[in-house]
Amino acid sequence: MRLSLVFGVIGHLLLLFAPAFLPPLGLAFFQGNYNVAGHFAVALAASAGVGWFFSRWFKRAPVLWRAEAMAIVAGTWLVVGLFSAIPYVFAGLSPIDAIFESISGLTTTGATILTDFSAYDDAFFLWRSMTQWFGGLGVIALFVVILPRLGIAGRQLFFAEASISTGEGISPQIRGAARKLWVLYIGLTALLAALLMTTGFGLFDGIVHALTTMSAGGFSPNPRSIEGFANPRAEWIFVIFMVLSGTSFPLQWRFFSGRLTAFFRDGEFLVYLGVMAVAALALAFMLPGGVTNIDNLRAGSFQVSSLTSSTGYASVDFEVEWSYAMKAILVIVMLVGGCAGSACGGPKVIRYILCLKFLRREMTQVLHPNAVIPLRYRTRKISAPVIRSVVTLVILYLVGYVVLGLLLVIVEPGLDFTTGMSASLACFGNVGPAFGDAGPMGSYAFFSPVGKILLTLSMWLGRLEIVTIFALLHPHVLRYVQVGRGRQSEAARKPTEG
Length: 498
Hints:
It is built from 24 helices and 2 strands. By secondary structure, it is mostly helical. A two-stranded antiparallel ribbon has the order 1-2. It is globular, with a radius of gyration of 22 Å.
């Protein structure tokens, strides 16, 4: 692995990220909070300075090796997360808390360690929302658009970062594809902000909630989340856009480009929508008054769309007000997640579909050992390497949930099993709210520093879909980094072409 190339590209991307601090800096200056404006100025200068220093190592290369593309993607998410934490440290958070909040934002997890929301100003909450918005569609996908030419890494970085299922490409040119997705992303964000303001949301609240809804993030400047606004009309609007945030953006592009049947011809979207509809009706049925009560339908639809899309908003304190059976339904939708190519976290619906097809084939072959049964999705044959990678990733996610939950229970004195396991699921799946003290109206502040570090790493791992990090720890990669050779194994050298 050419480490100078990896650090050079990461530095180049950090330098490009530095201007993101300008909007909260300008807001703080406009509101007369000059000290806060200075904090963002320091963060901007630090990001630009460190980025410029490492970008001097940047050298053009005809292609990135697969391991290098993975290292750049993983490193960029981590480095940008660290520098994004600088304003939080100035605001009074400890370094561990600041990094937790920053990584939670960029990975669009939405878990927070804040307890007293009144202690922070508008610039703080704007930056908090912006980190989620940048992380929603993908920091790397943004850089692929704004860089006129990397000379390397354009296609490789996009595919190493993006969670887009086979066949979801919308353009033969990756920069063109990324640009279209960002145009759609920006347009939907602006539309949502405008719609929220028609329901009584102020300009600031409309903007920050639009940023954190389309990114499937869920950060809100209100300590009671969406419940704190008591706005039923807005909640229905949130439901629609949270569903969209968990829907494949390439699929949405095709729909808004005029292919009006695109949604209804996509199996993954239909399963995604079907799971949410069934879960929402089940929750409404369990609430007093049943499904005939429109408020029950709204509460069920809101919470299901929020947790399935991994947004994490809450219109009700389900930790306190809902039964264990209702919470079990919420856990199910958290495990299901949204669609590939969307802003949500988790394994994605398409992977569960392929795993179920694989299991069905294996059961059939138990009865008919000599049968040749190809796996197909959308009339296309799924190759053995693809299904193997899908099954591997789903297993790693499920094992990761359990292992992290058990580790939290072990390292956290007095932590109950339910809170530990649900916090693991919420952070590893980039969902946000858990149960117990980490519930929708609670905070992760009660965790020890060790617990917060574990949860921060889990959010990072979950956003990168685990395999990226595990692959970088493979001996075939580490061996050549340690000895500094210019060659790698064929697997590590192979370009990441999607």
